[in-house]
Amino acid sequence: MASTIDLKGLVTWLELADAVIAEHADELTQLDAAIGDADHGTNMRRGMAAAVEAVAAGQFTTADAMLKKVGMTLVSTVGGASGPLYGTFFLRMGGALAGKDEIDAAALAAAVEAGIGGLVQRGKAAAGEKTMLDAWYPALEALTAHPGDVAEATRAAADAAAAGRDATEPMIATKGRASYLGERSTGHIDPGAASTALLLDALARAAAGETA
Amino acid sequence: MKKLINSVDTVVTDALTGMAAAHPGALRVDTDQHIVYRAQAKEQGKVAIVSGGGSGHEPLHGGFVGSGMLDAACAGEIFTSPVPDQIVAATAAVDRGAGVLHLVKNYTGDVMNFEMAAEIVAADGIEVASVVTNDDVAVEDSLYTAGRRGVGVTVLAEKIAGAAAEEGQSLAQVAEIATRVNANGRSMGMALTSCTVPANGKPSFDLPDDEMEIGIGIHGEPGRHREKIAPASEIAGRLTEPILAELPAGDGRGVIAFLNGMGASPLLELYLMYGEVAKILGAAGITVERSLVGNYITSLDMAGCSLTLLRADDELLRLWDAPVNTPGLRWGV
Hints:
Chain B: One of its GO terms (biological process) is glycerol catabolic process. Chain B: Residues 7-331 form the DhaK domain. The complex is a heterodimer of chains A (212) and B (333). Chain A has 212 residues and is mainly alpha-helical. Chain A contains nine helices and two strands; from the N terminus they run βαααααβαααα. Chain B has helices at 11-22, 84-94, 108-123, 153-166, 171-183, 232-246, 267-283, 314-321; strands spanning 27-30, 35-38, 48-55, 72-78, 100-105, 128-133, 185-191, 211-214, 225-228, 255-261, 288-294, 304-311, 324-325, 330-331. With 333 residues, chain B is α/β, with parallel strands linked by helices. At the A-B interface, helix 2, helix 4 and helix 5 of A face strand 4 and helix 3 of B.
C-alpha cells in the first residue's frame, strides 16, 4: 500500500484512463445516444488520447503543471460540455496541487474538491441532477473518509463513483441535453457519471501500483 | 450506415475542404482549425459576428458566412460544440475594432465553450457581446431543464443582426437586435425518422414506420413524445399551436414564417407543410409578412421539419430585406 502518489503515478493514471476510456468509448456513446447526442465516447477518447500525448511531449516537474496541461488539452480537443467540464476539473485540481510532486490522500482529496468546485461553477449544476457530479461527490466523500492511504482512498473513491454512476439511472435529468427528455431520461445511466467512474477506477489502479 | 464519406474521422474536415473548393471567391476556410471566414473581411469600424456550433446542421453556420450575415463560423465535430481555441481565433481574426458579437445556440456545451472563449478574448482587449438563442417551445419546463434550445430563430437572428452590423450599427445595437429577434421568435420541430451520426453508425433513436416524434431538437435527441403519424394538416397544427401559445402578441404585428427541413425531407413536402401552416395562420388572423422555406438548420439525414415564427417590427423587416450574399442565403445582390 502506498501513502502517497507521485507525479509518475499521476501520469500512469492518465495513461490507464486513456486506455479504459478507449476500451469503453462505444459504451459511453451508447449511453449518450439514449439520453443525449451520441458523442460522449468519441469525444472523450479523442480528448484523453490528446492529453496523454501532450503529457508525454512535455517535461513536467510538478503535478500542477502537468494537470493544467491536461486540462487545457481537454478544453481544446473534447468540445461539447465535457471539454469545458473535465478541462476545468483538471485545471482546478492542478491549481490545488501547486508545486507538489508527491501527493498524500488529504492533498488529493483537497485537489478533487477544488476540481468539483470548478465543475459546479462551469456547469451550474448540483448533486442529484443526473450529471457527472453524482459520481464525483460520493468519490470525494470516500477520499475524505480514508485520509491515511492513497491506494485505499482511491479504491474507495472509485467504488463510490461506480455506485454514484449506477444511482443516476433512476434520476430525472435537469441539466444538460438529457434534461430535454424530462421523465423519459429515467432508466438510463448518465454518460458523464460513467466516464467519471472510469477515470476514478484508473486512478485507483495507478495508486495501487499498476502500470500502463 | 450508408453515407457519402471517406472515413468517420474526417467528415468535418473533408466537408469544409469541399466548401472551400465550391466557394473560392466568397469564403476562406481554415481546414485545420475548422473555421469559415469571408474571403474579403468587412471594412474597419464595423461590428463583426461570429457564430458556430456542432457540424451536421448545414448550411448553418458556415453557409451563412458572407456579406450581410456572419463574418466567421466555427465548426465543431458533428453535434459537438466548437472548442474555445477556435472561437478565440475566429473572434480575433474578424474584429474590425468595433467589437464582436457571439451568436450562440442554447446548448450546455456551446454556451460553456463560447463563455470560455469570451473570457479569453476579453482579457486580450477585444470587446465581445454574446446573445444566446433559445426559441424551442418543445422544451416545456425551462426551470427543470437546461432551458429552451436554440433552433430555427438562430438563422433569422444571424440574418437580421448581420444586416444591422453591415449597415454600421454599434455592438450594443447589434446585440439588442439579436436579442429582440430571439425574444420574439418561437420554434417547434418534429421528426419522421432519426438521423445517423457517422461515428455512431446507426440511427440515434428507433422510430417505428407509423410513428412520429414531436418536439425534437436538432441533434437526434428524442423529442418530448411520440405519436401515430398523421396527415400534414394535423402535423402543421401540432407545430403551430404550441408556438402561438407562447409567441409574444406584438400588438398584432405580422410574422416572418420559417418552415425548415431537417435534412432528408424533400422540398415538395416542405412546401406542402408550409401551405398547411399558412392556412392555420390565416385562420388565426396572423399576417405573414415574409416567409422562408427550405433546409437551413438541419439534423444530418433526419426527415421532418420545424416551424419558426417571428413577430417582426418594421426595423426587423427592413433588416430582413437587406441584401445578403452567402452560400446558404442570398438576395438583393
